[in-house]
User: Which sequence fits this backbone?
């Protein structure tokens, strides 16, 4: 009985705290009292510098997710950052007026990875291409939304997606995995431009090649080249030999990093499944349910529930 009364008092204090939040700041001086640790948004530099563009992007995010954008962690990806990636892959150079693509990552669910691409604005890179590249870096969970205020190929958006994952989880993606994922996107995009194959056809070829290479436990480029050749022939997809070689090189790189990708995947899964990644309302609801469960009268259970809730409150207040 006393345990239940104490629990109710705790709930009252929690609810009071929700309506009168304590302001906290991070080391940069940014107010973090209302930030949702599970949601992050990366804006392209060009979009961030144009309020009309940013409003358009925010509207798309609101229409295609259930998150409060004011609570999301935000970051900006610049032309310099994109160029550091592209120069080692495609040798393309972008200026500050060309980084338009934006990405939202929501980790409030531990479901399998789902990608929503604004097809009216992202003209080249598809949902399957993003998903395949993210899987290469060990990302297999979360909800990703990609859009742009004006038409864009979407090639640079992958860097923003991965930056959002890092922002949401606080865990850095190893550079080797970032490079492999970006190489995959750029290679697939180039193959689409150089052939009559669609973006989804190319993404499907890569996905099948990865699966077969894993089944054969091989990173040998010649073997993977033959795998891709067979896949394209069996599916009547016309891709030239040079493109097949490029795809084989990308798949071989991804396969050589699969242990590193598995390790990062484990870190993300651990984060998504921890109590730290649950909302406070979920914890309160679960506690209230157990508090008024008349089938459990054991006082030790009450004590344990109160202790767990108190610990979770303490952890959340210091995150």
Assistant:
């Amino acid at each position: 009985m006393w345990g239940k009364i104490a629990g109710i008092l705790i709930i009252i204090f929690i609810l009071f705290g929700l309506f009168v939040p304590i302001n906290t700041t991070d080391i940069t001086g940014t107010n973090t009292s209302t930030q949702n640790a599970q949601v992050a948004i990366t804006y392209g530099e060009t979009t961030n510098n144009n309020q009309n563009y940013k409003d358009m992007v925010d509207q798309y995010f609101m229409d295609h997710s259930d998150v409060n954008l004011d609570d999301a962690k935000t970051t900006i990806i610049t032309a310099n950052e994109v160029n550091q990636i592209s120069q080692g892959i495609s040798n393309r150079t972008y200026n500050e007026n060309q980084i338009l693509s934006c990405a939202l990552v929501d980790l409030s669910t531990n479901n399998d990875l789902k990608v929503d691409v604004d097809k009216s604005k992202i003209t080249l890179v598809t949902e399957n291409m993003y998903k395949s590249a993210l899987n290469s870096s060990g990302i297999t969970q979360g909800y990703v939304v990609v859009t742009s205020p004006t038409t864009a190929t979407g090639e640079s958006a992958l860097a923003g997606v991965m930056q959002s994952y890092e922002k949401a989880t606080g865990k850095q993606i190893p550079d080797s995995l970032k490079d492999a994922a970006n190489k995959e996107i750029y290679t697939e995009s180039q193959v689409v431009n150089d052939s009559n194959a669609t973006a989804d056809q190319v993404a499907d070829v890569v996905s099948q090649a990865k699966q077969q290479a894993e089944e054969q436990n091989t990173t040998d480029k010649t073997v993977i080249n033959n795998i891709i050749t067979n896949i394209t022939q069996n599916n009547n997809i016309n891709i030239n030999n040079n493109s097949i070689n490029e795809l084989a090189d990308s798949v071989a790189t991804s396969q050589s990093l699969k242990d590193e990708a598995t390790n990062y995947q484990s870190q993300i899964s651990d984060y998504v499944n921890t109590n730290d990644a649950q909302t406070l309302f979920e914890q309160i609801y679960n506690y209230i349910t157990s508090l008024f469960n008349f089938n459990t009268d054991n006082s030790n259970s009450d004590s344990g529930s109160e202790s767990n809730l108190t610990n979770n409150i303490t952890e959340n207040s210091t995150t």
Notes: The first strand starts at residue 36 and ends at 44. The beta strands are 36-44, 72-77, 102-106, 114-117, 143-147. The two ends are 32 Å apart (CA to CA).
